[in-house]
Every structure is written in C-alpha cells, then in structure tokens.
Amino acid sequence: MAVDSRSGFCPSTSTFHSKRRPVPLPSDPSLDVSTFVLSRRHSGTVALVDASTGRQLSFSDLRRSVSCVASFLSSRLGVRKSHVVLLLSPNSLYFPIVSLAVMSLGAVLTTTNPLNTPQEIAKQIADSGPTLCFTTRSLLADKLSSSRLPVVLLEREEFKSTDDDEDKRVVTTVEEMMRTEPAEAYPKEKVTMDDTATLLYSSGTTGTSKGVVSTHRNLISMVQIILNRFKLEDGSGEPETFICTVPMFHVYGLAAFATGLLGSGSTIVILSKFEIGEMLGAIRAYKATYLPLVPPILVAMLNQSRALPLGTLRRVLSGGAPLSKEVIEGFREKYPQVEILQGYGLTESTGIGASTDTAEESKRYGTAGLLSPNTEAKIVDPDTRAALPVNRTGELWLRGPYVMRGYFKNQEATKSTLDSEVWLRTGDLCYIDEDGYLFVVDRLKELIKYKGYQVAPAELEALLLTHPEISDAAVIPFPDKEVGQFPMAYVVRKAGSDLSENAVMSFVGNQVAPYKRIRRVAFITAVPKNPSGKILRKDLIKLATSSSKM
C-alpha cells in the first residue's frame, strides 16, 4: 500500500492517512476513562482552581472527591452501570468531579446547556431517561420546574430537608457527598472500554438534536491524542496552566477540561462564564500558559483598542470554527508573543479530527490542520459517492478510535452517518491539499442552491469580513420560487458605520460570479452562534423567512 509521504494519500484505497506519529492506546479492555485519567503518573500538584473564589483542589483532593461522590452515588442513591445521570450546570469546580465519578461506575453522563429553554431540557430528559440530576438551585427553579428527577445541588451549602416542593426533590449536595467517607465496599460493576461513557447531544445546527453515544475507548483515545498534541503524555515535564473559558457541557470543554488535560498534571483554572476582565485577572493570578477559546473570544481580544496584558500566556487554542487570514494576522500583530493553534472536531468524533500543533502549521491560512494521530480520512463526492484525491472538494469522512458508537435510540440517523466500515460522514465540505492539510469549505447541508449552482456561505462570509465597516456577518439561503434559493447576508456594522444594503451587495457583487451575489441584506447587532462559535443559521433562516411574511 503506497502512501504519498507529502499528502498522506493512498491512491489504491483513495484514503488519506494522518502524517502524525500514531499514538499508542491502552491494551487493557477493562479500563474506564476515569481510572485512566486519575491513575496517570505526573508531577502536577494543583488540579482545579475556581477563578471566582480562589478555591483550589490538589490532585489527591480530586481523586478523593471522585471516590467519595462515586461511593455515595452507588451505595446511597443506587446509581448503577448504564444508568444515565444528567449534569446541568455552568462551568464549575464540581463539573470534573461529577463527570469522573459518574463514568467510574459505568453510568452514563449526559450534559446540557444551561441556556437551553425548559422545553429543550425536558425533551433531552425524555429522550435520555436520566435517573438523577446534578444542578444548581437557580437552574432547578428556572429550568427543571416540571421535572420530577431527584436532584443533587452543586452548591456549598448544608443539606436541609424541608417541606418545600422544590426541596423535596433535593436528595443531598455535592459538598455533602465529598465529605462522606467512601464505603469500604460499594456496589461497582465491571466497566470495559466498550461500555458507554457519555451521551452528549449534537448542536443541531442543521437538524434535530441527537444523542451521541461515546464509549470509554472513545474518550481514552481522545485523552491520549490531546496529551500527545501538547507533549504532555509522559507526565514528566513542567505542568501547564490552562484557563477554562469554553463550556464544559460541550464536547470541547468536556474533552479538554473535565477529562483530558487532568491526565497530564496540568492545572485547570475554571471561569464560570466568559468575562474579559475576569479572564485577564485569572491569566495574571495563576500565570496561565494556555488559553483554549472559541473564535468570538479571540475576535473580542483582537478588537480591543489596545493590546491586553496577557502575562505568561504562550498559546491560544481556537476550535469550533475556522479563523480567517485577517483575524490570524491581526492577532499576531497585536499579540506577537502568543501562538495561535487551531483544531477541528465534532461531538461525533469526541472533539478530535485535525489540528495545527505549531505556529508554523497555523501559517497555512484557512486550514484546520493536519489529520490527528490514528486518523484516516476520505473526501467523498456527495453525488456519486466516489472518493476523491488531493485538492478535490467533497464531504469529509473520518475513521479513528474516537468515532462515536452511534446516535442514541436512532438507528436511521446512525445508518446515515456511520457506514458498515465505521466511516463517520461529517457533513462538512472539505479538501485536503498536497501537504496533507485539511480545509473546511462549508457545511454540506448549508450549501445554497442558486439555479442549480452550489454557493458556500463561508466563502461569502469571509469576503464580507474583509470590508472595513463590517465586524461580523452570516450568509443564509433565502427561498425563492424562481431560482430556488439565493444568498442573503446578515451584517453587523462596526461602531459609527452607516453602511447601506446596496453598498454591501455591490461590495460582494464586484468580487464574485453572478450566481454568488448577495441579493438581500439585513443588519443585526450580533450574529447568533452556539457555544463552539458556529453560526446558528437555522435561527437566521427562521428570522428571515418569518420577516418576509409580515
């Protein structure tokens, strides 16, 4: 099997192979991700820091807390293997403790966005069937009023049983669990790498939200690849300090902070929500070296009138959406001491897929990076299903040890996303160049069909962002009886601008083929995006089509 060393492409199988060195994975089939993370040898001392209170947990504190919570869950609350446990919370010191405790029992962790409506959360509860919920008192009142689930409060308060209807559902607090000595022998079934570990719900940017079933093997593979990426896998180096701004309920935050980086002995400084002043204070106070974030935060840092004091920070890690050349160059000019690294992944691939691991790799503007270790890829023509070679655009298919088992209770969706050889159809329109770099062109399902021509919204968005009076933009398909769909732009003007609709359309029209021209413009104060920075086009499509009927 001849594989081109430059691109990683094998002509005989039409498959791209990762150019990165393979990462060895544990061979013991009776290994859960919690044991794998907490038993790793390292030189770290402080595991978790709450940026708002300064509270710290050492690695020995973390191990003991996980053991206490797991014991309480099993011996007192009857949580068993395969039971689903819901974690509804903003970023918190408790998030990794609860996550690791639940998974150590072979129970299944499902998380949800605290910003979701009560109806959206109720739908997830009905689908996943949890036996217990960890949440805060305010979220219990605001988001779970119609649920009858038993609740463990994520707050530093004494547990007091009352006659109040809300408190009748509260069985204890996580602090009480952490203070309770583990039972000498509590019920714990054998957990294997092929057992289900998490049930995360996909973002639903192009359809109905679905439960993604990931195994302990998937998560262990993800941890190994993350540690390898940052050269932290042997645990002998100087521990790093990471600022956690990204949501832990999302695969990005769960992968990096609630499991992955704890295995390296690194310190995780947790921000409950993003606020630029608090972030800067945490960077300075804890001498942070890494700042994982989503593109909107990076753009906010770039748009500051003066460079922010970033102290010891060496690297920012951007994921969720590709960064433009203008953003990368602007950030480098403003913060020359900080490297930008990018990554690509999906909930269905446990956050893994491709990455740039050095500043030099990131200079290949627009790329998501080289394929992750232990990864194979195909670029497949969406119409003919033919596998394509270098520099040809088609749907990206991925295969690796981190690819999900399937969608929860949804065989039809699983069959349309995973084939018999466990290739994951990402739904992303991509190409891989002659040097093995992956470029994400657009979401396949978001292509605009104008008179049969395909128009990629991301191409027009990148063009709009080069306009000196535009700070952000999103392009959507607008339905039309004559042409099928045409591109419509939602534009965020920069402060003081009075840019007109015609000026926007002329600016784009002068630089693209006629079928790609924007034919409708609306101005908004902010482009709606999900926690990982992806544009919520379905929300804008709904807004545009409802407005046109008025």
Which class do the helix and strand fractions yield?
A: alpha/beta
In helices, the fraction of residues equals: 25-40%
Largest sheet: 12 strands, mixed
* Portion in beta strands: 25-35%
How would you state the average pLDDT, rounded? 91
**Overall CATH architecture of the largest domain:** 3-Layer(aba) Sandwich
What's the CATH class of the largest domain, please? Alpha Beta
Number of strands: 29
Shape: globular
Briefly, what is this?
The protein is an alpha/beta fold and 550 residues long. The protein contains 17 helices and 29 strands. The longest helix is centred in the N-terminal third of the chain and has 17 residues, at 59-75.
Task: Walk me through this protein's architecture.
The protein has 17 helices and 29 strands. The longest helix has 17 residues, at 59-75. The protein starts with 8 loop residues before the first strand and ends with a helix. Strands 1, 2, 14, 15, 16, 17, 18, 19, 20, 21, 23 and 24 form a 12-stranded mixed β-sheet that branches. It has 550 residues and is α/β, with parallel strands linked by helices. It folds into 2 domains: 10-14 and 16-432, ANL, N-terminal domain (Rossmann fold, 3-Layer(aba) Sandwich), CATH 3.40.50.12780; 447-548, ANL, C-terminal domain (GMP Synthetase, Chain A, domain 3, 2-Layer Sandwich). Its EC number is 6.2.1.12.
